C-alpha cells in the first residue's frame, strides 16, 4: 500500500502541464448521454497517468465504474479499507444515515467520504447545518456559508445564491453536498482526510479561509478546499476553451486556481443521488 501519510506536508512543485502526462483532449466533447454512459472512461487514462506517475495507485478507481444511467453514489475506499470510516462500506451505496451517524462522532458535526457517481470520483460531505446555522460561529461547529465568489484573477464573479436562486436544487440537500473529485490544479483526486494534518483536522473556522480543518486536501501538490464555503466561481472547458460559471466550494489554499464544482444531490429515500444537469461544470479536465 502506498504510504501517503509520509507525504502530508510535502509541498511538491507543480509539474508543468506539458510534462504532466495529462494528455490532450483535442476534438473531444462530452454530452449528457456520453457522460451518463462513459463518465469515468473518458477520464481513466488521465487518472492513471496523473496519479500513477506520482505513486498514488492506492486510490485509483476502476475503469468503467458505475452502472450506466445509475444516479446513485457508492463509497470508494480502495486502499484505505482499514483507515477510512467507510472502509467496510467500499462499493456500497451511500446513504444519508451513514453520514449522520459518522458526523455525530465529530466535534464539528461533519463527515465526508470519497465515492463514485456515474463512474467519476466524488467527495460527499455532510455538515450539520440545520443544527448549527443559528449558533455562534466561534463555537467551532461547522455550517454552510454562502459567499461571494471570484475567478482565478480575483475578479468578483457573483454570489452562490445568484445560482441557487435560479435552481434551488443547487442548494445543499438535507445537509449534504457532493463535490466533483478532480482538482482544478492538475486534475488529481482530492479527498476527505486522505492524510492527517492541520488542514484535515476535525476542527472548523468560519470565513472559507485556510484556518481550521475539515478541508478537502489534494495530495498531489497540497491544494485545500473548504466544503462548507459555497460560492460562485469560474473555470474553462478544457476542449473548447469556453469559460463557465459554476456553484462550488472555495479554494482555501495551494496552487489550485479556483474551487471545486458541486454536483447537486437529491435523496431517493435514504440513498444519495447526483443530478446530471450541470456536466459542463466538470469539463476542465480530460
Ligand atoms: S493536482 Fe496539484 S494540487 Fe491538486
Give the SSE layout.
Layout: H1 32-38, H2 41-52, E1 73-75, H3 96-103, E2 110-117, E3 120-127, H4 129-132, E4 145-150, E5 156-159, H5 160-166, E6 176-180, E7 191-192, E8 216-217, E9 224-236, E10 243-253, E11 260-261, E12 265-268, E13 271-274
Parallel strand pairs: 4-9
Antiparallel strand pairs: 1-2, 2-3, 3-6, 4-5, 7-8, 8-9, 9-10, 10-11, 12-13
The structure holds FE2/S2 (inorganic) cluster.
What does this structure look like?
With 286 residues, this protein is of the alpha+beta class. The chain has a single domain, classed as Rieske Iron-sulfur Protein (3-layer Sandwich). 13% of the residues lie in helices and 25% in strands. The chain is built from 5 helices and 13 strands. The chain has helices spanning 32-38, 41-52, 96-103, 129-132, 160-166, and strands at residues 73-75, 110-117, 120-127, 145-150, 156-159, 176-180, 191-192, 216-217, 224-236, 243-253, 260-261, 265-268, 271-274. Strands 4, 5, 7, 8, 9, 10 and 11 form a 7-stranded mixed sheet that branches. Strands 1-2-3-6 form a 4-stranded antiparallel sheet. It is globular and about 40 Å long. The two termini are 27 Å apart. Residues 1-30 and 33-68 have low confidence and may be disordered. It binds FE2/S2 (inorganic) cluster.
